[in-house]
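REQUEST ID: PR-0412
SUBMITTED BY: lab tech R.K.
PRIORITY: routine
TASK: structure prediction, single protein chain
INPUT:
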Amino acid sequence: ESKVTFGTKNNGEYPVLWDASGESVKMIEYANSTYQTVVSKQNYSISDGGVSAMFSFDLDPKDAGSYNYYFLSPASSFNYTYPEYSSIGVALNQNQTCRAASVDPATAILFSSATGRTEQGGTLSSAFSHISSYCKLTIQGLTVGTGETVQSVTFKSAGKTVTGLNAYVWSNSTYSPVAGYVYDNVIVGTSNVDTSTGTFDVWFSCWPFAMSAGEKFSVLVTTDKTQYGRTITLPEARSFVAGCVAEIGVDMSTAEEKSP
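STATUS: complete
OUTPUT:
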């Protein structure tokens, strides 16, 4: 499981912080442009208040003229590699459990590379970039019955690749959805969120995608007794961009109760 979390918003940005333990990173090694191996690592140290982290990997010695290294966090999101296409299959969970003010740590997907090296291994310095997008979805004015408990919130954008398996091509930072393994929704567990007032934030990760003005998305709140849903028509275009947090508010005071 990844331990990447969002810090407190500052100057319009959410800092991304490594946690003190539990992080797992996948490393892919190429020698002389030939795919060699994939290694996972969990032991690491953090510095600068969680802004930086150092990972250590054990590699089998190789004799080559050039070495390229690629890193994916969390390791659990790694599905496969296509060496001939310079791409990796990356899975973004459809079912997530957000924190009170951050996405599910296992769904903040980061990628980094260190290329053009003439020696194997050594100390590599590289900055991770987000390949997943994020959303802070504010549920407003939800009224539930006495003793009723919110369990999850589902966001759906029909026909879009919201979660699931993507082939990520690192040479040009493009995505190719894997047919049969992608979903147009995300289901977010709310066990870490205070939903008692009927107005609360739900955070989720998704793949980058865009919705045009006039397109619709739906929100479904599931409780331990029933469900409440709304379908919203976008008044203007909206995009989910890698590394950015989209902020969306949904008035659920007029939500329709639906049978589970």
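NOTES: The first strand starts at residue 5 and ends at 6.
REVIEWED BY: pending
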